[in-house]
Write the C-alpha coordinates for this entry.
Amino acid sequence: MSAPTVPLVTALARGPLVLDGGLSNQLAAQGCDLSDELWSARLLADAPEQIEAAHAAYVRAGAQVLITGSYQATFEGFARRGLGREETAALLRRSVELARGAAALGEREVWVAASVGPYGAMLADGSEYRGRYGLSVAELERFHRPRVEALVAARPDVLALETVPDVDEARALLAAVRGCGVPVWLSYSVAGDRTRAGQPLAEAFALAADDDQVIAMGVNCCEPADADHAVRLAARFGGKPVVVYPNSGETWHAPTRTWQGPPAFAPSRAASWRTDGARLVGGCCRVGPDLIAKLAGVVEKQQRP
Protein backbone atom coordinates (compact mmCIF):
# COMPACT_ATOMS: atom_id res chain seq x y z
CA MET A 1 0.00 0.00 0.00
CA SER A 2 2.79 2.40 -0.88
CA ALA A 3 2.12 5.96 -1.98
CA PRO A 4 2.79 7.09 -5.57
CA THR A 5 6.39 7.96 -6.36
CA VAL A 6 5.41 11.30 -7.92
CA PRO A 7 3.79 14.03 -5.77
CA LEU A 8 0.31 15.01 -6.87
CA VAL A 9 1.35 18.60 -7.58
CA THR A 10 4.00 17.31 -10.01
CA ALA A 11 1.49 15.04 -11.73
CA LEU A 12 -0.93 17.96 -12.14
CA ALA A 13 1.77 19.98 -13.88
CA ARG A 14 2.08 17.19 -16.45
CA GLY A 15 -1.61 17.03 -17.32
CA PRO A 16 -5.16 16.42 -16.07
CA LEU A 17 -6.07 13.59 -13.71
CA VAL A 18 -9.41 11.82 -13.34
CA LEU A 19 -11.10 11.86 -9.95
CA ASP A 20 -13.51 9.21 -8.75
CA GLY A 21 -17.26 9.69 -8.42
CA GLY A 22 -19.72 9.55 -5.54
CA LEU A 23 -18.78 7.05 -2.86
CA SER A 24 -22.25 6.84 -1.31
CA ASN A 25 -24.07 5.94 -4.53
CA GLN A 26 -21.58 3.16 -5.25
CA LEU A 27 -22.00 1.84 -1.72
CA ALA A 28 -25.77 1.88 -2.22
CA ALA A 29 -25.31 0.01 -5.49
CA GLN A 30 -23.36 -2.61 -3.52
CA GLY A 31 -26.39 -3.05 -1.25
CA CYS A 32 -25.23 -0.99 1.74
CA ASP A 33 -27.74 0.73 4.03
CA LEU A 34 -26.86 4.45 4.29
CA SER A 35 -29.92 5.60 6.22
CA ASP A 36 -27.91 6.29 9.37
CA GLU A 37 -26.98 9.93 10.12
CA LEU A 38 -23.32 8.93 9.78
CA TRP A 39 -24.08 8.06 6.16
CA SER A 40 -21.20 6.23 4.46
CA ALA A 41 -18.86 6.98 7.40
CA ARG A 42 -20.67 4.30 9.46
CA LEU A 43 -19.17 1.66 7.20
CA LEU A 44 -15.65 2.60 8.27
CA ALA A 45 -16.53 0.76 11.47
CA ASP A 46 -19.18 -1.72 10.35
CA ALA A 47 -18.17 -2.80 6.83
CA PRO A 48 -14.79 -1.41 5.75
CA GLU A 49 -14.51 -4.03 3.02
CA GLN A 50 -17.48 -2.38 1.29
CA ILE A 51 -15.69 0.97 1.20
CA GLU A 52 -12.56 -0.58 -0.26
CA ALA A 53 -14.69 -2.36 -2.86
CA ALA A 54 -16.34 0.94 -3.83
CA HIS A 55 -12.94 2.58 -4.23
CA ALA A 56 -11.80 -0.36 -6.34
CA ALA A 57 -14.78 0.07 -8.67
CA TYR A 58 -13.56 3.58 -9.45
CA VAL A 59 -9.99 2.42 -9.99
CA ARG A 60 -11.30 -0.05 -12.55
CA ALA A 61 -13.27 2.80 -14.17
CA GLY A 62 -10.07 4.79 -14.67
CA ALA A 63 -9.96 7.08 -11.62
CA GLN A 64 -6.46 8.31 -10.81
CA VAL A 65 -7.39 10.03 -7.54
CA LEU A 66 -9.55 8.42 -4.84
CA ILE A 67 -11.35 10.50 -2.20
CA THR A 68 -11.62 8.77 1.17
CA GLY A 69 -14.82 7.91 3.03
CA SER A 70 -14.12 10.44 5.79
CA TYR A 71 -16.40 13.23 4.54
CA GLN A 72 -18.93 12.72 7.33
CA ALA A 73 -16.54 11.07 9.78
CA THR A 74 -16.04 13.30 12.82
CA PHE A 75 -15.17 12.91 16.48
CA GLU A 76 -18.55 14.42 17.40
CA GLY A 77 -20.53 12.17 15.09
CA PHE A 78 -18.90 8.97 16.26
CA ALA A 79 -19.15 10.09 19.90
CA ARG A 80 -22.93 10.02 19.49
CA ARG A 81 -22.50 6.33 18.65
CA GLY A 82 -20.42 5.72 21.76
CA LEU A 83 -16.97 5.70 20.18
CA GLY A 84 -14.07 7.35 22.00
CA ARG A 85 -11.51 9.67 20.50
CA GLU A 86 -8.86 6.98 19.97
CA GLU A 87 -11.37 4.73 18.21
CA THR A 88 -12.52 7.57 15.98
CA ALA A 89 -8.96 8.58 15.12
CA ALA A 90 -8.29 4.98 14.12
CA LEU A 91 -11.34 5.01 11.82
CA LEU A 92 -10.18 8.23 10.19
CA ARG A 93 -6.79 6.65 9.53
CA ARG A 94 -8.56 3.57 8.22
CA SER A 95 -10.35 5.68 5.62
CA VAL A 96 -6.98 6.51 4.07
CA GLU A 97 -5.72 2.94 4.35
CA LEU A 98 -8.80 1.57 2.56
CA ALA A 99 -8.36 3.96 -0.33
CA ARG A 100 -4.66 3.17 -0.47
CA GLY A 101 -5.45 -0.54 -0.61
CA ALA A 102 -7.80 -0.04 -3.56
CA ALA A 103 -5.31 2.26 -5.28
CA ALA A 104 -2.74 -0.55 -5.25
CA LEU A 105 -5.04 -2.56 -7.51
CA GLY A 106 -4.58 -0.12 -10.38
CA GLU A 107 -2.14 -0.59 -13.24
CA ARG A 108 -0.89 2.99 -12.91
CA GLU A 109 -0.30 5.34 -10.01
CA VAL A 110 -3.40 6.37 -8.05
CA TRP A 111 -3.32 9.16 -5.48
CA VAL A 112 -5.38 9.32 -2.28
CA ALA A 113 -7.20 12.46 -1.18
CA ALA A 114 -8.36 12.48 2.45
CA SER A 115 -11.80 14.08 2.57
CA VAL A 116 -12.35 16.88 5.07
CA GLY A 117 -16.02 17.74 4.79
CA PRO A 118 -17.67 20.88 6.18
CA TYR A 119 -19.06 21.33 9.68
CA GLY A 120 -22.59 21.01 8.32
CA ALA A 121 -21.98 17.43 7.22
CA MET A 122 -21.60 16.44 10.88
CA LEU A 123 -25.04 17.92 11.61
CA ALA A 124 -26.63 15.62 8.98
CA ASP A 125 -29.41 18.12 8.30
CA GLY A 126 -28.39 19.52 4.93
CA SER A 127 -26.76 22.63 6.40
CA GLU A 128 -23.57 21.93 4.43
CA TYR A 129 -25.58 23.29 1.50
CA ARG A 130 -26.29 26.54 3.34
CA GLY A 131 -23.29 27.41 5.52
CA ARG A 132 -23.66 30.27 8.00
CA TYR A 133 -23.76 27.99 11.05
CA GLY A 134 -23.54 30.79 13.60
CA LEU A 135 -19.99 29.80 14.57
CA SER A 136 -16.90 31.97 14.43
CA VAL A 137 -13.89 31.18 12.26
CA ALA A 138 -11.96 30.26 15.42
CA GLU A 139 -14.71 27.86 16.54
CA LEU A 140 -14.78 26.19 13.13
CA GLU A 141 -11.00 25.86 13.16
CA ARG A 142 -11.16 24.10 16.54
CA PHE A 143 -13.75 21.70 15.14
CA HIS A 144 -11.71 20.80 12.06
CA ARG A 145 -8.20 20.60 13.49
CA PRO A 146 -8.41 17.21 15.35
CA ARG A 147 -9.83 15.46 12.30
CA VAL A 148 -7.15 16.98 10.09
CA GLU A 149 -4.45 15.75 12.48
CA ALA A 150 -5.87 12.21 12.47
CA LEU A 151 -6.04 12.08 8.68
CA VAL A 152 -2.55 13.51 8.24
CA ALA A 153 -1.21 10.74 10.47
CA ALA A 154 -2.26 8.24 7.79
CA ARG A 155 -0.14 10.08 5.19
CA PRO A 156 -2.58 10.79 2.35
CA ASP A 157 -1.26 12.45 -0.79
CA VAL A 158 -3.52 15.47 -0.36
CA LEU A 159 -6.31 16.74 1.88
CA ALA A 160 -9.55 17.47 0.06
CA LEU A 161 -11.19 20.42 1.80
CA GLU A 162 -14.44 19.82 -0.01
CA THR A 163 -18.06 20.89 -0.31
CA VAL A 164 -17.19 24.11 1.54
CA PRO A 165 -20.29 26.34 1.50
CA ASP A 166 -18.88 29.46 3.09
CA VAL A 167 -15.78 31.67 2.83
CA ASP A 168 -15.60 31.81 6.64
CA GLU A 169 -15.35 28.03 6.82
CA ALA A 170 -12.71 28.09 4.08
CA ARG A 171 -10.66 30.44 6.27
CA ALA A 172 -11.09 28.08 9.22
CA LEU A 173 -10.05 25.04 7.20
CA LEU A 174 -6.98 26.75 5.80
CA ALA A 175 -5.97 27.71 9.33
CA ALA A 176 -6.57 24.16 10.58
CA VAL A 177 -4.31 22.59 7.92
CA ARG A 178 -1.54 25.20 8.04
CA GLY A 179 1.82 23.57 8.67
CA CYS A 180 0.47 19.99 8.66
CA GLY A 181 2.92 18.94 5.95
CA VAL A 182 0.29 17.72 3.46
CA PRO A 183 -0.87 19.73 0.42
CA VAL A 184 -4.58 20.52 0.09
CA TRP A 185 -7.19 21.37 -2.46
CA LEU A 186 -10.04 23.74 -1.64
CA SER A 187 -13.38 23.00 -3.26
CA TYR A 188 -16.54 25.04 -2.73
CA SER A 189 -20.15 23.99 -3.09
CA VAL A 190 -21.83 26.71 -5.15
CA ALA A 191 -25.10 27.95 -6.56
CA GLY A 192 -24.74 30.05 -9.67
CA ASP A 193 -21.75 32.36 -9.32
CA ARG A 194 -21.78 32.39 -5.51
CA THR A 195 -20.97 30.08 -2.63
CA ARG A 196 -23.92 28.38 -0.99
CA ALA A 197 -23.70 31.04 1.73
CA GLY A 198 -24.02 33.76 -0.91
CA GLN A 199 -20.48 35.13 -1.24
CA PRO A 200 -19.14 35.96 -4.75
CA LEU A 201 -16.96 33.17 -6.12
CA ALA A 202 -14.30 35.66 -7.18
CA GLU A 203 -13.84 36.52 -3.49
CA ALA A 204 -13.93 32.87 -2.47
CA PHE A 205 -11.24 31.77 -4.93
CA ALA A 206 -9.00 34.77 -4.25
CA LEU A 207 -8.87 33.74 -0.58
CA ALA A 208 -6.21 31.08 -1.16
CA ALA A 209 -4.53 32.44 -4.28
CA ASP A 210 -1.29 33.14 -2.39
CA ASP A 211 -1.36 30.03 -0.19
CA ASP A 212 1.38 27.67 -1.36
CA GLN A 213 -0.11 24.73 0.52
CA VAL A 214 -3.19 24.89 -1.75
CA ILE A 215 -2.32 23.04 -4.96
CA ALA A 216 -5.77 23.23 -6.59
CA MET A 217 -8.99 25.14 -6.17
CA GLY A 218 -12.48 24.71 -7.55
CA VAL A 219 -15.98 23.33 -6.94
CA ASN A 220 -17.80 20.10 -6.16
CA CYS A 221 -21.27 18.80 -5.28
CA CYS A 222 -22.97 21.47 -7.38
CA GLU A 223 -25.01 21.35 -10.54
CA PRO A 224 -22.95 20.58 -13.65
CA ALA A 225 -24.09 23.82 -15.32
CA ASP A 226 -22.83 25.85 -12.36
CA ALA A 227 -19.49 24.06 -12.57
CA ASP A 228 -18.91 25.33 -16.11
CA HIS A 229 -18.76 28.98 -15.06
CA ALA A 230 -17.04 28.22 -11.77
CA VAL A 231 -14.09 26.54 -13.48
CA ARG A 232 -13.37 29.72 -15.43
CA LEU A 233 -13.66 31.86 -12.29
CA ALA A 234 -11.39 29.54 -10.32
CA ALA A 235 -8.73 29.67 -13.01
CA ARG A 236 -8.95 33.47 -13.18
CA PHE A 237 -9.08 34.39 -9.50
CA GLY A 238 -7.41 31.39 -7.87
CA GLY A 239 -4.41 31.22 -10.16
CA LYS A 240 -3.95 27.48 -9.54
CA PRO A 241 -4.90 24.21 -11.22
CA VAL A 242 -8.67 23.80 -11.03
CA VAL A 243 -10.50 20.89 -9.42
CA VAL A 244 -14.08 20.21 -10.52
CA TYR A 245 -16.43 17.36 -9.60
CA PRO A 246 -20.11 18.28 -9.68
CA ASN A 247 -22.93 15.98 -8.69
CA SER A 248 -25.41 14.42 -11.08
CA GLY A 249 -27.62 17.50 -11.19
CA GLU A 250 -30.22 15.97 -8.89
CA THR A 251 -31.11 17.85 -5.69
CA TRP A 252 -30.58 16.51 -2.16
CA HIS A 253 -33.74 16.66 -0.02
CA ALA A 254 -32.44 16.50 3.57
CA PRO A 255 -35.75 15.75 5.40
CA THR A 256 -36.32 12.57 3.38
CA ARG A 257 -32.62 11.89 2.69
CA THR A 258 -33.33 11.37 -1.00
CA TRP A 259 -32.15 12.79 -4.31
CA GLN A 260 -34.82 14.41 -6.47
CA GLY A 261 -35.06 15.66 -10.05
CA PRO A 262 -33.45 14.49 -13.32
CA PRO A 263 -29.71 13.87 -13.75
CA ALA A 264 -27.72 16.30 -15.91
CA PHE A 265 -24.10 15.11 -15.63
CA ALA A 266 -22.48 14.79 -19.07
CA PRO A 267 -18.94 13.36 -19.26
CA SER A 268 -18.40 15.39 -22.43
CA ARG A 269 -18.22 18.51 -20.23
CA ALA A 270 -14.75 17.39 -19.16
CA ALA A 271 -13.35 18.63 -22.47
CA SER A 272 -14.40 22.24 -21.86
CA TRP A 273 -13.40 22.06 -18.18
CA ARG A 274 -9.94 20.94 -19.28
CA THR A 275 -9.71 23.79 -21.81
CA ASP A 276 -10.74 26.29 -19.13
CA GLY A 277 -8.03 25.21 -16.69
CA ALA A 278 -9.26 22.08 -14.90
CA ARG A 279 -6.59 19.53 -13.93
CA LEU A 280 -8.62 17.36 -11.54
CA VAL A 281 -11.95 16.30 -13.06
CA GLY A 282 -14.52 13.85 -11.77
CA GLY A 283 -17.95 13.56 -10.23
CA CYS A 284 -19.62 13.80 -6.84
CA CYS A 285 -22.97 12.50 -5.56
CA ARG A 286 -24.86 10.17 -7.88
CA VAL A 287 -22.03 10.00 -10.42
CA GLY A 288 -21.01 6.35 -10.61
CA PRO A 289 -18.19 4.30 -12.14
CA ASP A 290 -19.92 4.07 -15.53
CA LEU A 291 -19.91 7.86 -15.90
CA ILE A 292 -16.36 8.15 -14.58
CA ALA A 293 -15.22 5.61 -17.18
CA LYS A 294 -16.78 7.75 -19.92
CA LEU A 295 -15.25 10.90 -18.44
CA ALA A 296 -11.84 9.20 -18.36
CA GLY A 297 -12.27 8.42 -22.04
CA VAL A 298 -12.94 12.08 -22.80
CA VAL A 299 -9.85 13.19 -20.87
CA GLU A 300 -7.66 10.57 -22.53
CA LYS A 301 -8.91 11.47 -26.00
CA GLN A 302 -8.17 15.17 -25.41
CA GLN A 303 -4.60 14.37 -24.34
CA ARG A 304 -3.79 12.55 -27.56
CA PRO A 305 -1.62 14.49 -30.03
User: Anything to note?
Assistant: The chain has a mean pLDDT of 94. The radius of gyration is 17 Å. DSSP finds 13 helices and twelve strands in the chain.
